[in-house]
Amino acid sequence: MPLIKVDGPKVTDVDKKRQFVKDVTNAATTLYGLPAQTVVILLHENSPDNVGVGGQLIIDLHKKDV
């Protein structure tokens, strides 16, 4: 059973999440040759104050863009 974990920013549009899960599931079934019911996808949403890039929090990097 493939387990696919995705870490990324928060997505508020549930329809976009549904489509993403469907697309990733389809890709996994093509790759592994398994039925869709065996593919598990976990979406982990991270807020910008909990992610650092290059030694800085993303929330601080966005402040510089303003």
Any descriptors?
Macrophage Migration Inhibitory Factor, alpha+beta, 66 residues, two-stranded antiparallel sheet, two-stranded parallel ribbon
Descriptive notes:
The chain is α+β, with helices and mostly antiparallel strands and 66 residues long. It has a single domain (3-65), classed as Macrophage Migration Inhibitory Factor (2-Layer Sandwich). The chain has two helices and four strands. It has helices at residues 14-32, 58-65, and strands at 3-9, 40-46, 52-53, 56-57. Strands 1-2 form a two-stranded parallel sheet. The longest helix has 19 residues, at 14-32. The chain is elongated. The chain starts with a strand and ends with a helix. 2% of the residues are buried. The model has no long low-confidence stretch (mean pLDDT 95).
Describe the protein's topology.
Elements: E1 3-9, H1 14-32, E2 40-46, E3 52-53, E4 56-57, H2 58-65
Parallel strand pairs: 1-2
Antiparallel strand pairs: 3-4
Summary, kept brief:
By secondary structure, the chain is α+β, with helices and mostly antiparallel strands. The protein is 41% helix and 27% strand. It contains two helices and four strands; from the N terminus they run βαβββα.
